[in-house]
Every structure is written in structure tokens, then in C-alpha cells.
Amino acid sequence: xxxxxxxxxxxxxxWHLKTVLSEALDSEFxxxxxxxxxxxxxxxxxxxxxxxxxxxxxxELEGRLQRRRGVGTTVAPPRMGVSLGTGPHxxxxxxxxxxxxxxxxxxxxxxxxxxxxxxxxxEPVHIVRRSRVSHGRPVASELLYVPQPSVPELSGIDAPSGxxxxxxxxxxxxxxxxxxxxxxxxxxxxxxxxxxELDRLPGAPVxxxxxxxIALGRTxxxxxxxxxxxxxxxxxxxxxxxxxxxxxQRKAS
Length: 253
Description:
Layout: H1 13-28, H2 38-45, H3 49-61, E1 65-68, E2 72-75, E3 80-84, E4 100-107, H4 111-117, E5 125-134, E6 137-146, H5 162-173, E7 180-189, H6 192-198, E8 205-215, E9 218-228, E10 232-236, E11 243-246
Helix pairs in contact: 1-3, 2-3
Keywords: DNA-binding, Transcription, Transcription regulation
Domain HTH gntR-type: 11-78
Pfam families: GntR (PF00392), UTRA (PF07702)
């Protein structure tokens, strides 16, 4: 990084410093590289450490940096896109699906989910838990709710539990003819369980993408996917999918 002192500007000094640091990250550092400590950075740019911390915090919010105890501040991988469309696509678990099934249980879903699925409240459904990892870090977790009538041929003998059961449910879903998918997205905060899965603190900002899979004129499955807000950006198109891809952009859209 250069040693040029910051000139007097109208914008807050930390914001100008953030811009300078961002340019340095693009030209001088690679993904995963550890930045110099705060004392050295503050000295190089001639700013107070409080100003430096503000700039670093902003870059972390934008997904440019990751700060972890015992490691330091590292350059984060590029943000990934969550592409939202409205047209027909495929069931989860298809050949191009990068989500990893982790577990499957039979339990009553939340009342709001039961209402969407049009199952009786308290009636058990298949709950498939999946995760998504990129650049070695968890970026999203998903709960996929599947009513029993959507997978009538599912055999408990072949796949009694765990990831094998999850794969069996996903495989049986492929038998249905998918009519369309409907997506909705909202900003939320990570609960204790989600925070643990995503390696974040409880209350961290997340993007919650809810997807209804329509078949035979009804909701055949409902996905509630939680994405780390510091690693994802939204893109909108007509592809009819919710997919994650590595992209060149690093700032939030």
C-alpha cells in the first residue's frame, strides 16, 4: 500500500480512506491475504486508528474484508450473486445444483409454512437441511419442506435417515412435473442456529429467499434459504432460478 497522506476532502475522512483501501485491495492484495495490522495501516495513511477502524468496518460490510479473531483481517472472495427469476426451472437436487444435503427429518413445520403447503398444522412433513460452501466458507443454509404426498413412493427402508434420506427425498421430487417457481426475498437477521451454520454472530444480517415449487396446481415443496448478506448480492433476470455463482463484482448491487 502507498504512503500518501490523505488530502482534505468534503466527505468523511473514513469514507475517503475506505475508497483508497478498496483500490489497494484490487491492485496489491489477493483473496485470503492478511492485511498489515491496524497500527501499521494507520501510520501509512496518516490517520487515527479510530478512522481506520471505521473504514475497515465499512469494507467488511461490503464484503471486501473478513475479520476473525486469531487470524486478523483478510481479503474476502468476491461477492456471489443470488439470481432471482420467475420462470419455470428445475427441482432442487438436480445435476446443476451445488447445494449439499446434510440431513432430513420428519416433523411438523412452522404454522406459516404449513399454511403455504396447505397441510394441517401439526402434520409432519419431510424437512431437508442443505448447505452451500464457497471458497471454503459457508455462505448459505436451506430448509426444504416437502409434504408427504409430494413424494409418495419414498421408502424409509432404503434411506432411513441423514444425508441419504435427504437425497432420496430430492430424487423423488424429480418425478413430479414442475410447473413453475415463485421467489421472494427479504432482509433478516441470523438466529442462533443459522449463525452457527453460517459462521456468523447471532443477529448478523442475512438474505432470506423463499421459493415455492408449484406442481399439479399446488405447492409441492417450499424452500427457505438463508444467505450471508456480507457475501451475496442480488441479481434479477428471467432465468427462473435461484443460483449462486462467482462474479467479478465485489460491491453490493
